[in-house]
Specification:
The complex is a heterodimer of chains A (195) and B (592). Chain A is of the alpha+beta class. Chain A is built from 5 helices and 9 strands, in the order H-E-H-E-E-H-E-E-H-E-E-H-E-E. The longest helix of chain A has 13 residues. The termini of chain B are far apart. Chain B is of the alpha/beta class. The chains are: A alpha+beta (195), B alpha/beta (592). Chains A and B meet through helix 1, helix 2 and helix 3 of A and helix 15 of B. The structure holds flavin-adenine dinucleotide, thiamine diphosphate and magnesium ion.
């Protein structure tokens, strides 16, 4: 067809499908109604659409009618955009923040129960000390160590304790919060209390 | 004064303007039915299966634009209605489904006919509620209707335990709702709309790609204005049919897998795709990576998740079609200058060329068998003046109806697109008929699909819903057979139905009218008789069994690479007579 070939004169314009980039870890903070069944709606969304959940933590907020979820997930840009939009679409979801869009701090706590033979007990304590971890329970043959930090720190202490023999390990999953933007100290004149 | 939960429910439905509900009783909802029985404002259509109730509510909703309501019992009543909920969810149909539940004290105990209604329906509803306290009932119903009908519409389930339906509470219907996590966006971003207007003014080969969203937002008038003002051709999705007049010179008809040649060529070669209330379904895009490769894309949709889900979008506009198109038209009215017809001449020349090269077509059978397309075409020509509502089942007959029944207005088209639910047609048609008792409501059905909800003929007769069902009887799961002929070397695995009931006798057994058009020459007379009969009618039309639906874009293929007729290998095989089993061949099927 003549017209058709004439139209083909143009070059293909870039990509059509949203580019499938590299999967990146994202921490998403979700404020939800503190209601029965909300967790299953969020979990169902992730499983139903094949999104990853690496960890999920939920706890009440200052306002008892809301809960805060921190979800660690991964995906390329397009998937994470869908995750954020799909979460927003849930009626019980009040607010969604992809923390990766700004600076944030995140922490995780692990409780590690280590077997301790008599000769290892001092070593266990030394390791705990290096990581500013606390011993929160102790029996003649075990210590339970509580450690908080970013995932790298947790991996590191776990690696060091492993040779002593880890009996049980429980991790909370990560929680995260956005960093407040830092303002230059001078530009913010202190407000008078009465103003 | 205090009312029981059942009375409160009924008062709420009345306050929402509900005139008809589709329902089937059971133990835990007896109190609700008892109260319904004692009032006159709401008509109860007793269906024969809960799936039927769900699809009727869908048909009612699609034809009226209001929420459809169905009422089912716990356990099996609930599981039976799931298909309809999933269907409504996929096609964004506003529905409120009330389900009965065992008493609150028994929940979780594996009580008789207990099912986890909330868990079962969660993935196929927009939202669902379990009402644990009768004091929450009125607010819940208000919220259910609000959520079902606003934003992107969808089904909402309200699960009412038996004790809640009996308990008493003070009744006041809330006048407003506030749900802090739910605030649909209606007005589009003005800056984005301006960008869209500029892109439209610059485009040389623009195309409108319009979908179900235009129907939901009642934006047909705004769409017509936009298309006429800018002289942009209009492609419709299956769900968008009726959003733009099918006979309008700017209409390209349906696009996608079984869309018209020109609709698919136009979208493939366009330089600007303006998607309005459509969701880039894979039946439309074909191979996504090569969908409209030369175009910028504008996407107007009320649901942010629809945007950039499947395809990159250059100008996203989140908002209601009507509001956005109004704003867009206003900008364009001020900017459009010169004669758009002249401006678009090269594009239209190209489009007319495509239209003439491969219009929708079929050949009459040399041996006089009735061609299915011909039935739809005649049905259309014989009834179009009556502005009928048309329902379909799922399969080849659905695609032929989409191609040949050129709807002039929205809310006349009841079809299952996203889920593709066989058995949708008859109950959906009945739901629309219940809303509009005096209108002509047609259902083009398949001999396979109709048997999935045939039992509702009893409802049609008893509840006086005089729908006209035209069965395109090819004795096959025709759509399946077509794929087998094209991609499985003609091995008809479980697609040949071998025997179907005598649909004429079946109609009569139900107390409806049964007619048959056995010869091409009888067709018009039989169709005319059917549409002038006052009772429900089934017309059995034996059609040529091996007809295939074209154009066709094979799954995963590109939009400009359509199959337009039986490929040579298939023609050759058919000439030799295909085998359907050890002792069956083409001739025995034709004479059976
Ligand atoms: C056998 C079979 C064959 C099929 N073949 C084809 C085919 O050839 N061509 C075809 O097109 N389809 C075909 N389909 C249907 C297909 O599967 C999809 O259902 C259909 O393409 C979706 O249509 P749509 O994009 O208009 O979306 P819909 O499902 O109608 O969705 C509507 C969109 O509009 C949005 N919306 C809703 N309300 C508003 C509002 N007020 N304002 C703005 N936006 C709104 C929604 O968010 C959604 O994104 C076929 C189905 C079957 C069963
Ligand atoms: C409930 C359900 N089961 C199976 C299918 C798969 N399917 C799609 S079309 C079709 C055949 C439909 O046959 P019929 O109703 O006779 O229509 P025809 O294609 O012959 O016109 C089947 C089995 C479906 N869409 N829905
Ligand atoms: Mg059939």
């Amino acid at each position: 067809m003549t017209g058709e070939t004439a139209l083909l004169g143009r070059t293909l314009r870039g990509y059509r499908v949203c580019a499938r980039g590299n999967a990146m870890e994202h921490i998403i903070s979700v404020t939800v109604e503190n209601k029965f069944g909300v967790l299953s709606r969020v979990a169902g969304l992730f499983s139903g659409r094949g999104f990853n959940i690496e960890s999920l933590s939920v706890a009440p907020t200052l306002d008892p009618s809301m809960s805060q979820m921190t979800i660690v997930t991964s995906g390329d840009e397009r998937i994470v955009e869908q995750i954020v939009k799909q979460l927003n679409k849930l009626i019980d979801v009040i607010k969604v923040v992809d923390l990766n869009e700004s600076d944030f701090v995140s922490r995780e706590t692990a409780l590690i129960k280590v077997h301790t033979k008599a000769e290892d007990r001092a070593e266990a304590l030394r390791i705990a000390d290096i990581f500013r971890a606390n011993v929160i329970d102790s029996t003649p043959s075990t210590y339970t160590i509580e450690v908080t930090g970013d995932p790298k720190k947790l991996e590191a202490i776990i690696n060091l304790l492993q040779p002593l023999g880890i009996k049980e390990l429980i991790r909370t999953g990560r929680v995260a919060i956005a960093r407040e933007a830092i303002r230059p100290a001078v530009s913010q004149p202190k407000k008078l209390a009465r103003e | 004064m205090k009312l029981t939960g059942s009375e409160i429910l009924i008062e709420c439905l009345k306050a929402e303007g509900v005139k008809t509900i589709f329902a089937l009783p059971g133990g835990v909802v007896l109190k609700i039915f008892d109260m319904l029985h004692q009032q006159k404002d709401i008509e109860v259509v007793l269906t024969r299966h809960e799936q039927g109730a769900g699809h009727m509510a869908e048909g009612y909703a699609k034809a009226t634009g209001k929420a459809g309501v169905c009422l089912v019992t716990s356990g099996p009543g609930m599981t039976n209605v799931i298909t309809a909920l999933a269907d409504a969810y996929m096609d964004s149909v506003p529905l409120v489904c009330i389900s009965g539940q065992v008493s609150t004290s028994l929940i979780g105990n594996d009580a008789f006919q207990e099912a986890d209604n909330i868990g079962l329906s969660r993935p196929c509803t927009k939202y669902n509620f379990l009402v644990k306290d009768v004091n929450d009932l009125a607010t819940t119903i208000k919220e259910a209707f609000y959520i079902a009908t606003t934003g992107r519409p969808g089904p909402v389930l309200v699960d009412i335990p038996k004790d809640v339906s009996m308990a008493k509470a003070e009744f006041t219907y809330p006048s407003s709702v506030a749900i802090r996590g739910y605030n649909p966006t209606y007005e589009g971003n003005k800056w984005q709309i301006k960008q869209a207007a500029e892109a439209i003014m610059k485009a040389k080969k623009p195309i409108l790609y319009v979908g179900g969203g235009v129907v939901f937002s009642q934006a047909a008038k705004e769409l017509l204005e936009l298309a006429e003002m800018t002289q942009i051709p209009v492609d419709m999705t299956l769900m968008g049919l009726g959003a733009f007049p099918g006979e309008h010179p700017l209409s390209m008809g349906m696009m996608g897998m079984h869309g018209t040649y020109c609709a698919n060529m136009a979208v493939h070669y366009s330089d600007l795709v303006i998607a309005v209330g459509a969701r880039f379904d894979d039946r439309v895009t074909g191979k996504v990576s090569e969908f409209c490769p030369f175009a910028k894309v504008i996407h107007i949709d009320i649901d942010p998740t629809s945007i950039r889900k499947n395809i990159h979008v250059d100008i996203p506009i989140v908002g209601d079609c009507k509001a956005v198109l109004r704003e867009l038209n206003q900008i364009l009215r001020a900017t459009v200058n010169g004669n758009q017809k002249d401006l678009r001449k090269p594009w239209w020349n190209q489009i007319r060329e495509w239209q003439q090269a491969h219009p929708l077509a079929y050949q009459q059978d040399p041996d006089g068998a009735i061609k299915p397309q011909h039935v739809v075409k005649r049905l259309y020509e014989l009834t179009k003046d009556r502005d009928p509502i048309v329902a379909t089942d799922v399969g080849q007959h659905q695609m032929w109806t989409a191609q040949y029944f050129k709807l002039a207005r929205p809310n006349r088209w009841l079809t299952s697109g996203g889920l593709g639910t066989m058995g949708f047609g008859l109950p959906a048609a009945m739901g629309a008929q219940a809303a509009f008792r005096d209108r002509l409501v047609l259902c083009v059905a398949g001999d396979g699909s109709i048997q999935m909800n045939m039992q509702e003929m009893a409802t049609a007769v008893v509840s006086k819903l005089p729908v006209k069902v035209i069965i395109l009887n090819n004795r096959f799961h025709g759509m399946v057979r077509q794929w087998q002929d094209l991609f499985y070397e003609g091995r008809y695995a479980s697609s040949y139905l071998e025997t179907t009931p005598d649909f004429v006798k079946l109609a009569e057994a139900y107390g409806a009218v049964g007619l048959r058009a056995s010869k091409l020459g009888d067709l018009d007379a039989v169709l005319k008789e059917a549409v002038s009969t006052e009772k429900p009618v089934i017309v059995d039309v034996p059609t040529y069994p091996f007809e295939n639906c074209y154009p066709m874009i094979p799954a995963g293929g590109c939009n400009h690479e359509m199959i337009l007729e039986d490929p040579p290998e298939l023609k050759q095989r058919m000439a030799g007579g295909p085998s359907v089993g050890s002792d069956e061949n083409k001739d025995t099927i034709l004479t059976a």
